[in-house]
Amino acid sequence: MTPFARKKQQLYLVLSGIFVVNALLAEIIGVKIFSVDALLGLPGNLTAGVLIWPVVFVTTDIINEYFGKAGVLRISYLTVGLILYSFVVILATTHLPPAAFWLDVNKLDAEGRPFNVDFAYRSIFRQGLGIIAGSITAFLIGQVLDATVFQMIRRLTGGRYVWLRATGSTLVSQLVDSFVVLYVAFYLFGNWSFDQVLSVANTNYWYKFAAAILLTPIIYLAHFLIDRYLGREETVELQQEAAADVSV
After folding, report:
1. pTM
2. pLDDT tens digit string along 83-118?
3. Sign for the pseudo-dihedral over CA of 63, 68, 71, 76
4. Do 246 and 16 contact (CB within 8 A), yes or no?
5. For residue 86, with 0-12 CB atoms within 10 Å meaning exposed, 13-18 middle and 19 or more buried, which class applies?
6. Domains and CATH numbers, the chain
């Protein structure tokens, strides 16, 4: 293996690791809905998972830049499989009989009120099953859309305007993702009203919109670091290969 091939492999491995761990974490913590008003004094509510989805957006665009649409979809399909595996394991643990001492030592909350820790565990993680159905549906749609729009803008601009293809593809894909995940997870599988879905989806999308804009410098920083790591000529070659790869 040549030094360039080894560096290319290592780069894809690192980017894929960042992508997978943040996507998986977002799925797990996404069961919590928090008040933006209580936190920042701004109207609306957000799912906790949305806080780290911007990392997934940025990583998606970087992978697309250097490894093409096929590179993005390869790691996306793998991530879906790992998320499904994680939730099968988590679901199985919710059916395990709780130890009596564990229930006893956790029978009161911090304010001395009766508390069933096993019920809380089951309630939190089983709620995630609806989210996993919605997230996987939205994730796959969003990733295919993101990768496709990214390459389309790249071709239309002749490879210029990194910020436009990175931010533009994210804004389009997340418009769909923000609604689909909540509709499936909390409307079809949950107990939300359609108005609640629209309200939280709207807040989620505008957060992602702002994050996509604010994180644009990170895209340029990543390009700079990768160029230094791979070498300028090798980077150009890799980007040309990625631009030419329109396969799924």
Report:
1. 0.81
2. 889 888 988 999 999 999 999 999 988 888 999 999
3. positive
4. no
5. middle
6. 3-101+129-237 (1.10.1760)
Q: Which residues contact 236 (CB under 8 A, 6 or more apart)?
A: none
Token code pair at residue 84: 């499904």
Asked whether the CA dihedral 131, 174, 45, 79 is positive or negative, the reply is positive
Residues 153-175 pLDDT 10s: 888 877 777 778 877 887 787 77
Q: Kindly list the distances between the CA atom of residue 215 and the CA atoms of 61, 219, 248, in Å, as whole numbers in the listed order.
A: 12, 7, 27
Q: Are 11 and 59 in contact (CB under 8 A)?
A: no
- Count of beta carbons in the 10 Å neighbourhood of residue 71: 21
d(CA 135, CA 206): 18
> Closest Cα to residue 163, out of 212, 224, 91?
212
